[in-house]
Amino acid sequence: xxxxxxxxxxxxxxxxxxxxxxxxxxxxxxxxxxxxxxxxxxxxxxxxxxxxxxxxxxxxxxxxxxxxxxxxxxxxxxxxxxxxxxxxxxxxxxxxxxxxxxxxxxxxxxxxxxxxxxxxxxxx
Length: 124
Prior knowledge:
By secondary structure, this protein is an all-alpha fold.
């Protein structure tokens, strides 16, 4: 039950932070959801960092990893919003914006995970 509470608490915090970041940033560009993009990239960086720390042994407890990776990152990152926004671009015929956003989100997201893993290595 403790683990479920940690996921619940982390997810709630992540969701609120996602809202606070996305709400002011998403309207800045007509066909690029900047807030969602930033949240997803920060989430990729954080999950890489957290999972990197958990592989180092005692640097992060299993409960800490559960709270941060499953809870916080799960509530913070916005893949469902990401998918909906891509549908919006396709529906409006914004094929170039769709392709650029997809490629940049996936490419930068992977790089952010790698950077998080690398940063975790620096701590040990």
